[in-house]
């Protein structure tokens, strides 16, 4: 590929259009070395790899503006004419520097090249103001502290200036989206980070968090009776809520307190262990609206097939994550989810790791006597030897995956002109769970991002919709899109009050979910070849972290997984080694920890940008 992260990547708008075109055309990878089989000697055999990526299907994009008027419009920015993809500014800078070089380059994301492109003089004010705070691992509170005293007070967001744009959204032309395309960082996979999840713990432990900034998700929303409502989560939210009666507030607080310590009271749920969580909720003294909030917006589980224990566990996890970094359980990485794999690539590069772009692999070379893989052959006919090989599922051929049964994820990405729930503050990161219309279908997770998350241009919102697939992505998700948004450019009728947000552009696609496939399901793989999956359909990142650690421990059982890198002053160099200041590998000041707490022995913390911080 021409970009980092595979199906975890983020794209500028023009980069996403190129990705869409490539997946709609589905061209085979070019095989530059046709006689690579001659490199396989007598005691070896080759396991051919797939020449076509089949993880993305049913890609459909729609423009709800005047697309013809944007034909001659180019994306603004010095690198707009760089050929190929641009998952973010970091990649496009790398591609620009590599232009004219050999057809295959070794590259790693560089923070230095990324920041100047993403922050320019025309940066919207929202990029440096809003609901951001500085937090580290020392800001932790006891699990569920948000039900009592929060370690952090609820975030106070600044109200947007009162003007006509709050009532009448600004008209955004498609040509303007194209021109401001570098303002967008559009994720292929939509996820949030639980503040006490495995990924946050790993980012802190490894100190990779120094390479990224994060924002709190500011709102948990629910869709009920055709309306979008805000869900109260913490004690302060519950008792400040105007949509709940005083009796409902006491009911909700009593149940949430029980969920935090449900394992100590098995007598209250053991009779319902074989029932669904929805059935269990109906036996508690909860009103229908409270049951809806808990099921779809707090536990965020299926109404049909989630057991009572799984529902209680999900609710407890939600509550334990409250109050660590803000008033909701979630964090979002600024510039998109695609920043996370790039951050790990940066740390890898510091210690000599190489990430090769535009570098195809033809086959695995297996020794017939030992049965182990000993090398790969690339598209130049070059053999690269190693002791271990980690292969992403999409590279395996159909003959290797004969017995594999894949699930699919339905995805949609929308660019809209206003939020699904307008408030005084325009800068909101929201998560909304929409219950299924038809029985047996999954709920749809909706994540709405504002411009201060650095994922879209000013006066627009980026909306991600995700659910496990039952049909094509458009068939699964368009009914939900029609409920929440306008899909045409005509003015709203008088009966529609308040006005729905207008969709300016949309894309639907299905993505393969290979997260549940065991290694034994793949045919004929050597024992030293490990398979990792693409993204799963869950909201968090626990599956990927568990998978990475499992593979690492199988290869190196005596080693620590992702230990914190040593401080430069603690490194003792041998006589034949070169100190960092004498070598070509360096980290710019922008990548250094911004506070002493991030350099602590605990591995640092999560930095969430303050209002007064400069790029």
UniProtKB/TrEMBL annotation:
Residues 89-168, 558-615 are annotated as: Disordered. This is RAE1 geranylgeranyltransferase. It comes from Indicator maculatus. One of its GO terms (biological process) is intracellular protein transport. Residues 571-584 have a biased composition (Acidic residues). It comes from the Eukaryota. Pfam families: RAE1_2_domI_C. Residues 89-98 have a biased composition (Low complexity). Belongs to the Rab GDI family. Gene3D superfamilies: FAD/NAD(P)-binding domain (3.50.50.60), Guanine Nucleotide Dissociation Inhibitor, domain 1 (1.10.405.10), Guanine Nucleotide Dissociation Inhibitor, domain 2 (3.30.519.10). The lineage of its organism: Eukaryota, Metazoa, Chordata, Craniata, Vertebrata. SUPFAM superfamilies: FAD-linked reductases, C-terminal domain (SSF54373), FAD/NAD(P)-binding domain (SSF51905). The gene is Chm. GO terms for cellular component: cytosol; nucleus; Rab-protein geranylgeranyltransferase complex.
């Amino acid at each position: 590929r021409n970009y980092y992260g595979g199906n975890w990547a983020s794209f500028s708008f023009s980069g996403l259009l190129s990705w869409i075109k490539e997946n709609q055309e589905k061209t085979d990878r070019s095989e530059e070395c046709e006689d690579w089989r001659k490199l396989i000697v007598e005691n070896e055999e080759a396991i051919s790899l797939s020449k076509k990526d089949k993880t993305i299907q049913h890609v459909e994009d729609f423009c709800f503006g005047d697309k013809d008027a944007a034909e001659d419009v180019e994306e603004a920015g010095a690198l707009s004419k760089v050929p190929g993809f641009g998952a973010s500014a970091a990649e496009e800078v790398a591609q620009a520097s590599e232009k004219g070089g050999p057809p295959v380059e070794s590259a790693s994301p560089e923070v230095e090249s990324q920041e100047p492109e993403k922050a320019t003089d025309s940066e919207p004010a929202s990029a440096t103001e809003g609901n951001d705070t500085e937090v580290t691992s020392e800001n932790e509170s006891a699990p569920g502290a948000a039900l009592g005293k929060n370690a952090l007070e609820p975030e106070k967001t600044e109200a947007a200036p009162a003007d006509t744009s709050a009532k009448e959204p600004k008209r955004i032309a498609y040509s303007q989206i194209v021109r401001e395309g570098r303002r967008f960082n559009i994720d292929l996979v939509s996820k949030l980070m639980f503040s006490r999840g495995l990924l946050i713990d790993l980012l802190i432990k490894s100190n990779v968090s120094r390479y990224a900034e994060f924002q709190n998700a500011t709102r948990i929303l629910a869709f009920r009776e055709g309306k979008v409502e805000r869900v109260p989560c913490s004690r302060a939210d519950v008792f400040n809520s105007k949509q709940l009666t005083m009796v409902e507030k006491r009911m909700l607080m009593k149940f949430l307190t029980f969920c935090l310590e449900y394992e100590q009271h098995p007598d209250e749920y053991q009779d319902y262990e074989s029932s669904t969580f929805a059935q269990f909720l109906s036996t508690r003294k909860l009103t229908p609206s409270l049951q809806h909030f808990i099921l779809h917006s707090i536990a965020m589980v299926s109404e049909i097939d989630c057991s009572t224990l799984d529902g209680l566990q999900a609710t407890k996890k939600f509550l334990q994550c409250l109050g660590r970094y803000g008033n909701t359980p979630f964090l979002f990485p600024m510039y998109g989810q695609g920043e996370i794999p790039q951050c790990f690539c940066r740390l890898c590069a510091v210690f000599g790791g190489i990430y090769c772009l535009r570098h195809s692999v033809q086959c695995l070379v297996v020794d017939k006597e030992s049965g182990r893989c000993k090398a790969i052959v690339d598209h130049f006919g070059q053999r690269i030897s190693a002791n271990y090989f980690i292969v992403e599922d999409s590279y395996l051929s159909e003959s290797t995956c004969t017995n594999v049964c894949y699930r699919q994820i339905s995805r949609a990405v929308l660019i809209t002109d206003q939020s699904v729930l307008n408030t005084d503050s325009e800068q909101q990161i929201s998560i909304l769970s929409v219950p299924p219309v038809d029985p047996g279908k999954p709920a749809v997770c909706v994540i709405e991002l504002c411009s201060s998350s650095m994922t879209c241009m000013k006066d627009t919102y980026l909306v991600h919709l995700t659910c496990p697939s039952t049909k094509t992505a458009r068939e699964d998700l368009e009914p939900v899109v029609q409920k929440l948004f306008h899909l045409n450019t005509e003015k709203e009728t008088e009966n529609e009050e308040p006005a729905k947000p207008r969709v300016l552009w949309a894309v639907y696609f299905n993505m393969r979910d290979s997260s549940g496939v065991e290694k034994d399901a793949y045919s004929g793989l050597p024992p030293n070849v490990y398979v990792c999956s693409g993204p799963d359909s869950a909201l968090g990142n626990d599956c990927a972290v568990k998978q990475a650690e499992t593979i690492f421990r199988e290869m190196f059982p005596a080693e620590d997984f992702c230990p914190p890198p040593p401080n430069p002053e603690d490194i003792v160099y041998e006589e034949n080694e070169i100190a960092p200041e004498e070598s070509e590998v360096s980290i710019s000041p922008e990548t250094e920890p911004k506070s002493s707490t991030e350099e602590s022995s605990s591995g640092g913390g999560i930095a969430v940008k303050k209002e007064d911080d400069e790029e």
